[in-house]
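Need the bound structure for fe (ii) ion, inputs here:
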Amino acid sequence: MDSYRHDSHYGHNEHKPSRGQHWQTDAGAFVRESFRQNNFWLRIMQEHALFIRLGLPCDETALIREAEKLEELFRGLRAELRRLPHKEEAFRCFNDEVIRALGKIIDYKSTVLKRLITCNLGGSSLPLLIDHIRREAIRFRVILLRLQNGIKVPVAEQALQEEIFWLRIMGEHAHFIAHLLDPSERPLVSQSLRFADNFETLRLQAKDLESMEVPRTFENWLLPEKLAGCPLPPGFGDLPGPLLIPRLVRFNEEVIDLTKEIRDFKEVALQLIEACQVLSIIPPLLADHVLREAEMALEDLRIVGRKISNHDHLRQDGRESKDHLN
Ligand SMILES: [Fe+2]
Ligand SMILES: [Fe+2]
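Answer from helper R.:
Posting the output first, comments after.
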């Protein structure tokens, strides 16, 4: 099963590359993107270890100790990143080191989640919160693995992946905020739940668009997970490639608009928490953490928005040949 294909143009279903074919990015873009991702996510990973530790029962000393070691590991990687020369070779080694560290934190989050969902762990962390932060770690690792292996995702598929990931994350933040506010903060709880609903609606729309434009993701979903990445019998994967349509440009704008709204809401929440003007069990660092994630979401969504808009110009200028259009 080949999951990676060339960038597509409007209405043009790209051809399948030969097995294992990769596309190298240029060195400057590789270094810039490696820095951007590590600079944001390493701090987030360090904070995840702290949040898990704070939510553990005080007699879970082995899990507490393990969380402290992970905080130390990611603190060290952040210090190393600050000293790292902005050179391709340096980032190739560094990314590998981070990928190994992510393996450790993903295993740790998996252990905690398994104990929570089998009712073998107390404390104050919700299972969906641990799943949420494990998903953030899994996506960060995939981003680095793509960079290390020069794997490019077609722009329509990439846009939907970014949107579906961030819509779910932002909707869950809204749910977590609603749960952690004191119930007496009625208008703020209602406002958080409205955000969660609005994100959920957009996420369902994104899934509709995904099955229209990237049908192979639906077929992949029907495969048993143990077959993921294995060679498949003929017939599998025999579907049209990703299709970029103008509707995606408008959809990206809708996602950005809602994300801006929750970003502003989180900023106000952080100010209220810091000034002790709201009743909640949200630590200021958690409020700041989810605000930073909204800012990263906006950055990612704008980057992918520019990519799909550039394709739009190509089409409107009529520079793309007709035989690329169905
Ligand atoms: Fe996070
Ligand atoms: Fe998050």
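Comments: The pocket of fe (ii) ion (ligand 2) is lined by residues 132, 136, 169, 173, 290, 293 (CB under 6 Å). Residues 1-24, 316-326 have pLDDT under 50 and may be disordered.
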